[in-house]
From TrEMBL:
Belongs to the MscS (TC 1.A.23) family. GO terms for cellular component: plasma membrane. It holds the Pfam family BON. This is Small-conductance mechanosensitive channel. PROSITE patterns: BON. The lineage of its organism: Bacteria, Pseudomonadati, Pseudomonadota, Alphaproteobacteria, Rhodobacterales. It is a multi-pass membrane protein. Homoheptamer. Mechanosensitive channel that participates in the regulation of osmotic pressure changes within the cell, opening in response to stretch forces in the membrane lipid bilayer, without the need for other proteins. Contributes to normal resistance to hypoosmotic shock. Forms an ion channel of 1.0 nanosiemens conductance with a slight preference for anions. Residues 43-109 form the BON domain.
Length: 454
């Protein structure tokens, strides 16, 4: 019983707003005019006649009945929609002598009455469209003339190629010019249709759509802008050996979307231009002279100055090592079982394979040190055994001789296989890059050797 009472109370609360609104709708509408008395007051018959004559001038009020008593107008019957009902109240309110308006009209339930005004509006709009068809065709023709003329001018005139630094930028100029001509065509068409007020709305809608698309394809737009900037800056040339964010290889092409590298293993690496523009680029080819370095460890008791002089002399004797800048050497650190020496030298990358030159320099320096009697000790670790006397290893172990390092080979160390000759450069990467450019002939290569590099 308690639950039933609670449900009834909730239902009453839900129905209360509807009852209040219905009551407010049925209440008379008070007018702001002054209530007149005496002989100057307008009679109820005159008010009724005036309202009925006004309603006959409007469509949709054929079934509205008007009654007036002491200046209070009561409207009953049916109307098409709520808009007509509100308009009916406003019409009656404008009549002189009306004290209050009690609008009791209801919405018509007849489907024919509800559809007839819509059909009339559609027919009127169709007639207006047919009447305005010639001017509309003129506006469309004007738009097409401007748009097609702009496309023809941007495609045929060579001025874009002269003012742009490369073909990619000239295509961008052409695209922007075509958009400008299209906008001019739209403005001209709207002006012919006397609808220039729509220009602001169209431009505002275009701005909102452009902003939404910009957020949706932000990465694509960023990549496109990076392509434009890279084509202007030209940070590298075709066949340059570069390192871009950890990816190393020879530059094959720079397209409108990505930079293509050929790695030393022959793999194709596609790096988005946005990454290239914002990333760290190391160009190993811009300066043909490149330094190699390596380290060797010698005995801690050895004459370090003599060891460095021996290795430097051996490196200076190599034909591919440049005299200027000179070969360098210094002590890097003291290791666990040796002293680490650093050796440097410079080569001309146009004539020498850099990895082969470095490898041959290491081999030559190692051979020279060993031939001069300098040991290159391997790492030695001291092992402490629990329970053994601290005086050292057993006598029979101490009596054993230390192993003797084999003497350096007296064979001709300069005789190298052809594959290891530093003067023999590898052309596989360059050939792969050339093949990549040949396969991409239909796609624009933004690298232009005729332009000034960054």
């Amino acid at each position: 019983m308690r639950k039933l009472s609670l449900l009834l109370f909730c239902a009453a609360l839900l129905a209360l707003p509807g009852l209040v609104s219905a009551q407010s709708a049925s209440e008379p509408v008070q007018t702001e005019s002054t209530i007149e008395v005496g002989t100057d007051a307008v009679s109820d018959a005159e008010i009724r006649g005036r309202i009925e004559r006004l309603l006959r001038e409007f469509s949709g009020y054929d079934k509205v009945r008007v009654s007036v008593s002491e200046g209070v107008v009561t409207l009953s019957g049916t109307v098409i929609d709520n808009t007509a009902k509100d308009q009916l109240t406003k019409i009656a309110d404008r009549v002189a002598g009306v004290v209050a308006i009690n609008n009791k009209t209801e919405l018509s339930a007849s489907l024919e009455e509800r559809l007839t005004p819509a059909a009339e509006r559609i027919a009127n709009r169709a007639r207006d469209l047919m009447a305005n068809a010639p001017i509309f065709l003129v506006a469309v023709a004007a738009f097409l003339v401007v748009a097609i003329g702009g496309w023809f001018l941007t495609s045929r005139l060579p001025v874009w190629d002269r003012i742009a630094p490369n073909r990619f930028i000239s295509d961008v100029y052409r695209a922007v010019a075509r958009i400008v001509f299209i906008v001019l065509g739209v403005v001209l068409a709207l002006d012919i249709l006397n609808a220039t007020a729509l220009i602001g709305a169209v431009l505002g809608a275009a701005g909102v759509v452009g902003l939404a698309l910009g957020f949706a394809v932000r990465d694509t737009v960023e990549n496109f802008i990076a392509s434009i900037l890279l084509s202007l800056r030209q940070p590298f040339r075709p066949d340059d050996f570069v390192d871009i964010q950890g990816d190393t290889g020879i530059v094959a092409r720079l397209t409108s979307r990505a930079t293509i590298l050929i790695s030393p293993e022959g793999n194709h690496i596609r790096i988005p231009n946005a990454t290239v523009y914002k990333g760290r680029i190391v160009n190993f080819t811009r300066d043909p002279h490149r330094r190699f370095d390596f380290e060797l460890g010698v005995d801690a008791d050895a004459d370090l100055a003599a060891a460095m002089a021996t290795a430097v002399a051996a490196l200076e004797g190599l034909s591919f090592v440049l005299n200027d800048p000179a070969v360098g050497a210094w002590v890097e650190k003291v290791g666990d079982s040796n002293v680490v020496l650093i050796f440097t030298g410079w080569v001309d990358q146009r004539k020498t394979s850099f990895p082969k030159a470095r490898g041959e320099a290491i081999r030559t320096a190692k051979t020279a040190l060993e031939s001069a009697g300098f040991g290159l000790p391997e790492p030695i670790y001291r092992v402490r055994l629990d329970g053994q006397a601290p005086g050292g290893p057993p006598h029979h172990e101490a009596a054993q001789e230390r192993p003797v390092r084999p003497a350096a080979s007296t064979a001709d160390e300069t005789a190298l296989p052809a594959a290891s000759d530093p003067a023999r450069k590898e052309h596989a990467q360059t050939e792969a890059a050339s093949r990549e450019r040949a396969l991409g002939e239909n796609e624009e290569n933004l690298l232009d050797p005729s332009q000034k590099a960054e």
